[in-house]
Amino acid sequence: MSDHASDFVLQAISFDTLEGWKDDDPSGLFEVMRSCRRQITDVKPYRTGSLGLSSEDLLPLLAAAEDFTPSSPASARAFFETHCRPFLIRRKDGNSGFVTAFYEPDIDVSERPDEIFRFPFYRRPDDLIDLDDANRPEGLDKAYAFGRLHAGRVTAYPDRRAIDQGFLEGRGLEIAWAKSKVDVFFVHVQGAARLRYEDGRIIGRITYAAKAGHVFSAIGKLLIERGEIDRAEISMQAIRAWLARNPERVDEVLWHNRSYIFFRDAPVADPQAGPIAAAKVPLLAGRALAVDRMIHTFGFAFFIRAESLTHLDQGRPFRRLMLALDTGSAIVGPARGDIFTGSGDIAGESAGTVRNDADFVILIPNAAAGRID
Length: 373
Hints:
The chain has 373 residues and is of the alpha+beta class.
């Protein structure tokens, strides 16, 4: 484990003491694991997080899953019990882990702007460049992973306000236009959307391509601090309702989050399949988890236990094995996750109110687990 992971420890536990494990059915993960293996072997390995667990560490598990078809929930669990060891992620500050949720919205759009469809989704601009320690200009915070290369100089890219006010107009970067600036903003937060054109068909999908580089600033936190929404009541639905009641303040609040997301067209071979996110495999509703990729590595399995989160499992506490397949600007920390609830409005209703304490248990393949002890 690297020094970057010094604010938490991995505590070895047993599957027998993992509350809720014996009631879970992780059978649906095997197809996703096969997709992860193809991505690692045929395209490129996932970036190794500071925890030090690599795609190479994951491959023995994925190879074993290649030809394994579970005959029952018990046989699916037995597979992981055979090939992995569970470790509780315990934060040294004593705080519990925390989960939120995200979904893929369905957004009404037009291929051309008019008086109704006025708010664009933009492709990545050609003057946006990836930054690293070699090309980051002095004085620009290391949090910036992107910048602007213009006339031979690298600077911070214009932020949400500048782009909303027209910085990118006339460059042909628009993918489609939506009816609502608030809808566009929340697609930025979610990182993907299915596009529903005028005839009602979903024939488009967009997913994250890059960001302007500015740090994500949660507008929910801003509204709590201003006393506009009670902390206990905060949710995506509550934020949307406040924005609808205060149209004259929408720009000011949205511009507080200077972060701006650019998208790329994504294939829609199967509209029912989940979006392809950071791990480059389709997300499986209820089983895909966004994690802090600076710490964790995509493809690893996490058992998430959130006793107070009950609306996703018909009143029962949320206790599921999930795969780390995505990341996000707001997902920071060793025991911080974002649960993918699916696509469409119902999934959005489910996702919008998830804000729960949770235990995070990472399943580490046996050979790599030997390094942790």
